[in-house]
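Continuing the batch. This is chain 6 of the set; chains 1 through 5 are on the previous pages. Same settings as before, nothing changed between runs. Recording input and output for traceability.
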Amino acid sequence: MPRIAPLLLISVLTGCQLAPSHEQPPSPTAAQYPADYQPMDGEVLASEIGWREFLQDPRLELYIETALQRNRDLQIATARIEEARGQFGVQGADRYPTLAATADASRGRFPTGGAGATGAGSVGGGTTGFSGGSGGQISERFTVGLGLSAFELDFWGRVRNLTEAARAQYLSTVEAQRAFRLSLIADVASTYLAVRGAEARIDLAEATLQSRRDGLRIARVRFEAGITSALDLNQAQALLTQAKTELANLHLVRAEQVNYLTQLVGGPLQQPLPEPLPLNEQIEPLRLDAGLPSELLLVRPDILGAELDLRAARANIGVARAAFFPQISLTGSFGYISSELDNLISRDNRTWSIGPSLYLPLFDFGRNRGNLTVAEARENAAVAQYESAIETAFREVADALAGRRWLAEQVAAQAENVATLRRIADLARERYAEGVVNYLQVLDAERNLFEAEQAFIQVKRAQIQNLVSLYIALGGGTRTPSLTAQSDATQRAATSGR
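Output for chain 6:
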């Protein structure tokens, strides 16, 4: 019984947990998305459909696949995962004793007289004379053994909390990489859609330019025949110049977007590329189910990462609190020592030692108190960052839902506007040919139609881009459980099995 009591005491002390228990802070957002643009029941959850299924364009798929392989920033995020995994492994090793094998051999000469000779004689055997000098002796010693170096008895959970903090930080880097991966998919898709939109506007501008060249040619013929005035000729020239200016600007926009897309995918792609889809066929019609805001906590990697940062901050509070208590370390060794190598491993040459060491802070001039204050402040900041991540996710989804509704109405209205302006332009050209109106009305009608057609392409691209934003904001493509979820499930299984 006397031997059992210390073991019970140690087990009780080892169970001490000085870190605050982890609880999710209450959600700072509403329980539902705003009702005025809340859609009908959706067809599919964004987390249940991969990006290849969502984005239909084969050229865009190639761009995204290449970016996921070659993007430098994603490679940096992946390398940080490996770094954090290594740090977690290093910190986790401190929870267990470190055994090291040692071996040593020494040979030395000592004077025959005085304390040196006595010390040498105490080491023993293998003494031989030497030639060419005054008296002395040569001593040899051989040792071999195992050593336990300063293993901390983690009564207060300091090492355990350090390991938990390292684990949470490691898993946080995993979620950060997943968040960046989603962001990269969104950036590549957005830039690609901007390129496709610019190309559609270039096609429109080139067709318009050709039409206005024909109009200028006709206006010059009519002017030279004395049918119209120089004003009509200059107005036709102005229409042509407008189309040329817009075309040059669109080529610049496209070049800038192509350069950015090349950077995102990590360099140019080998030609030829797959044929792209038209802008209005980029995404297969489907209704994404927005679900509830609370579901974002399970699928958004930025929120999961912020929660893991909060876990790490709370574990570090336990580390700071443990610094107020004694640290007890255990050092021991076992081995053999002899002056003769042939007889080293024998019962008579065994040697061992074991002993604890105690470190108790008495006067540190507020260092431990300051470290605890820092840890608590970082926990408060982590809570605020976690809540901010939830608010950001809620806003992004709400914005995308609003865009899905209102952009659809804009596209329909703009399409109707283009059809109306096209009829007006056709009528103006007919009336001008009949001599009913002057060329100024044709000029206004052509200019308005061109601007409306350009605006329609832009709002159509914005609608498709908004669907991509909604897909990403809802945690698109997170059907595979994250490493965090897998780790937590493994830990729960291990806990239930004990």
